[in-house]
Amino acid sequence: MADIRNAGKYYAHYLARYWKGFIATAILIGISTWCIVVAPTYLGRAITQLTDYLQLWNDPVTRASADLASFHRTLITYVLLYVGDASALFVASWILARITAYSTGTMRVGLFRKMQRMKVQYFDQHTDGDILARYTSDLDNIFNALNQALIDIFLAIAQLVGILLMMFDQNVQMAWVTIASTPLALGAAAVVMRQASVAVNQQQTDIGAMNGYINEQVTGQKVLITNGLQQDSVRGFAPYNAKVRRSALKGQIWSGVLMPLMAGMSLLNTAIVIFFGSWLALNGQMKVGAALALVVVFVNYAQQYYQPLTTLTSLYGMIQLAITGARRVSEVRDQPDELAVPEGQVLDGLQRGVAIEDVHFSYLPGKEILHGVSIDVAKGEMVALVGPTGSGKTTVMNLLNRFYDVDSGRITFDGTDIRDFTLASLRANVGIVLQDPQLFSGTIADNIRFGAPAAGMDRVIAAAKQANIHDFISGLPQGYETRVSDEQSVFSAGQKQLMSIARTILTDPRLLILDEATSNVDTVTEAKIQAAMDNVIQGRTSFVIAHRLKTILNADKIVVLQSGRIIEQGTHAALLAADGFYAELYHNQMVFD
Amino acid sequence: MRILIPYIGRYKRDAILATLTVVLQVFATLWQPRLLQTVMEAIMAQDKTTVFNHGLGLIGLAVLGIAAGIANTVFSARLALNVATDLRTDLYGHVQTFAYADVEAFSASNLVVRMTNDINQIQQVVMATFQQVARIPLVFAGALALALITMPMQWWVIALMMIVIVATAVVTFKLMSKLFAQTQQDLEDVNTLARENLMGIRVVKSFVQEHSQITQFAQTSDRLRDVTTKIGEMFAVLMPIFFLTANIAVAGSVYLVGAHLTAHPTYLAAISSFTSYLTQILFAVINGAFMMTFASRAFISMGRIHEVLDHQPSMAFVPAGPAKVAGDVTFEHVTFTYPGDTRPTLEDVSFTAKAGEMVGIVGATGSGKTTLAQLIARLYDPERGRVLVGGVDVRELPEATLRHAVAYVLQRSTLFSGTIASNLQQVQPNATPAVMARAAEIAQAAEFIDRLPEAYDAPVEERSANFSGGQKQRLAITRGVIADPEILILDDATSALDARSEKLVQEALDRELTHTTTVVIAEKIASIVRADQILVMDNGRVVGTGTHRELAATNPVYQEIYATQKAKEGGQH
């Protein structure tokens, strides 16, 4: 129920602005439906007129007075009614198609816009696949539902109302007969749909388990082959496959039976209408022509009456998906935004230095990661953070850029708490180079000027030169205009890393945070990256998160973190002399002759 | 379609019954207007008995229709599931005969998609075929035939209606197909942007580029919106035209009945059934067009499955040969090029390692280290030259012999979901707790396994996600040594281990597996500094062979690598 309410709110937000279109659609559909339900009566009238004509013509006395003029007029009206129906339906579909395309477009951009405002925390807690699915399958489901279900629901409801009105207008007895089987049909449909949803859930669970097995085994094919385990794998697969056969059979039968069931019910209902109609025609006080017309008209209605019912039941699954989709997308909409501090001070350069003062921090309440960390960095100094995985090195970086905020303590730039600066000015002064150099679709030049889209080529080239990547780029056939796409990249991890360094150089940040690349590159490439990093660090205040000690031997200060606490700090020489944790780490990593 | 026939043939009974029930269903649908016509004639003739009997007949016919519809669903679902399950079994079995090159050629994720999505697609089409597709031509042909029997002289009304409808459909779809392709492209662009911004959210935020990204996304999204609008607008024309055409045809036929009424007075009773047939023809044509697009997707899936089933494994093993070989490894002028590459990855590589030796391989990324190791395990065959294990060309060894002799531990050789024991017993089926414990001791895994409450019965989650990187590698090494291999290849398999554990692993290997040749590929010189023999690779060639001390003194490539890892002068003590 909560899902439906959320979905309702979501759709109301995006669709309310098209209220004029919806009203126009409703009116047009009303017109179209009126035409459709009225038209059969003209067909009936035409038959009555033909019967009368035949009787007149068969009688030699009246033959001369028999003519078809009124019959022709009836037929023309019949055609005109369908022309009206078609035109109204066309305009209504046209309006709804536009509303669908425009509203889903707004939803898509809205989702993206929201994503750019959200806290980094959300992205850390959800997998990329999960968030991306909201763009792909969820928005897709919403689009499909709006695209198909919207017009169908409009039509079905209008048709149902129209036919009911017409039937009761024409003949009350016959109308009751026509709708008599409705509870039976809807009841059967409800039972089938409930069974189907249970069976399909089980089916999806089993398919998920099987796909998981296939994925794990085939992705690990190298391990299977090198250990000669292929036949074991085939044996292991059989039970999964057998289970899917059983549960999917159930799922397919229950979900597949709905349409033939409804079609069959429609057939049965038509039979009942014919049966009762002809009984009425023979036992009632009707003329043959009128009786014939009554049966023809109600056969028509009986068929039409079941159409909206069938449509509505068949849309059920699609609507279900659209409700789930709306819930998942609005979940994102409900996430808190980052605090942009629009009224804050504008940070403009760094005069004295950066200080981390007794910072406590936890990603999850109750699970503290940093337990009172304090680090001072004077302007122009380089501080290296060292420690085992999980010691909190990367967390410090997350705090300096306000991807996360401290639980207690504070971080200051020139003595001012970073939470007092506008978020944009803070980040404009802090540059980061990440372990995994994420590039964006576009040219190499676009990527290097990512942080300053207006920068000219001279600045791009200057940055590339400093990052030791200019020669490589110049050697490419298309130079700086070479397309970058993260999907099928022709660039090595090392080259991407160098481009991401150039990207940071170009924005000329006051404070630099470098998260060193780890195992993706060999040590020779790493040396090249190191040289580029040294160029960036030159003259800047910097934090370096180091994985390989070789790179930080010249740091002004090395801070050793373990389990969220600083256990040692000092220069390389001082720490080696202390012969503690750092000294052991150093000896383990290096080769000694 | 060809591949499906033998599978459907296995379940002839279901296929025949499904077809039969469709025919019954169609019969019930088509015969109803026919009976209606008789009833109408009886009403005109005031014949109560006929009306009553045929009325009952109508209800019986409808019940038959429902029963046939339900039975048809059961039979076609069973057929579809049986076909899909068998097809999947065969596909899976076939993939497991593939050599590594074949898996690489298709790519693992691609094979997974074929075994899951594509099979699913086929299952749906088989089901739809026996539920719907058979129905459409039957309804079409039946309705057409009955309409012609009912009012033969009106054949041209029907023909005209069909021409208009088909022409409209063809023209619209032709206009739309270009737009559909455009939609696909735009959708891809939108998703790419979304994905990049997800993965790079820290970059976007730290460069304060949220607004420029939103602008770019909005432009791409608007392009997609405009194309979908166009498609929607074209679709809006389609249905109204279809219905209008059908109803003009109805009016036209009624008009003709009027015109010829005096000659054929019985036509009056036939109007209702004739118009029913017209509607059924209309829906058959519309459904047919819809099914076409559905089927075209299934044809693509079938083609993709075909491709896998038709692909013959690129490597075959001799059926019989020596059951056991010693651990000596020899490369004789081995050159190897990956399929599709122009330059060889290995060029004229020769070396010999005696059983029980430790061989280290170093070199830059892409220098051919892993390729060399893969040739020992015969994941690929050399283009020229020979690879010998225990003095025998690997191409003359049966698969089981080679797999037992060579254990290959990868940097990312995760375990399979199950338990630690189930993973170890996969390789060594009769491994006793003592055997498992010994292997874990060697791999330095015993200390953390013993701390797990369920020890060797501890669960292993998918992708071994419940173990840390270092633990995963130690478990993988445990699996590598448990069967006491003649040759153990550690392909960057200790990268997540700290130097102390790595040293302990190597010492244990020296001590416990004295006959085992160990081939160690590493980025860190520290990992191979103790090797009896180190091969230095550069661009596919071995540019140096010797011990650490020899190479450090003489080999420039080795020196360059070493320089980046050497302790700082004065830092030693």
Give the arrangement of secondary structure elements.
The complex is a heterodimer of chains A (593) and B (573).
Chain A: H1 2-15, H2 19-58, H3 69-117, H4 120-125, H5 128-170, H6 172-179, H7 182-219, H8 221-226, H9 230-256, H10 258-283, H11 288-333, E1 353-364, E2 367-378, E3 382-386, H12 393-400, E4 408-413, E5 416-417, H13 423-429, E6 430-433, E7 442-443, H14 444-448, H15 457-466, H16 470-475, E8 483-484, H17 493-507, E9 511-515, H18 523-537, E10 541-545, E11 557-562, E12 565-570, H19 572-578, H20 581-589
Parallel strand pairs in A: 3-10, 3-11, 6-9, 9-10
Antiparallel strand pairs in A: 1-2, 1-4, 4-5, 7-8, 11-12
Chain B: H1 4-10, H2 12-44, H3 48-95, H4 100-106, H5 108-133, H6 135-150, H7 155-199, H8 201-206, H9 210-259, H10 267-310, E1 329-336, E2 346-353, E3 358-363, H11 369-376, E4 384-389, E5 392-393, H12 399-405, E6 406-409, E7 418-419, H13 420-427, H14 433-442, H15 446-449, E8 459-460, H16 469-481, E9 487-491, H17 499-512, E10 517-521, H18 525-528, E11 533-538, E12 541-546, H19 548-554, H20 556-565
Parallel strand pairs in B: 3-10, 3-11, 6-9, 9-10
Antiparallel strand pairs in B: 1-2, 1-4, 4-5, 7-8, 11-12
Helix pairs in contact in B: 1-3, 2-3, 2-6, 2-10, 3-5, 5-10, 6-10, 7-9, 7-10, 9-10, 13-16, 14-16, 19-20
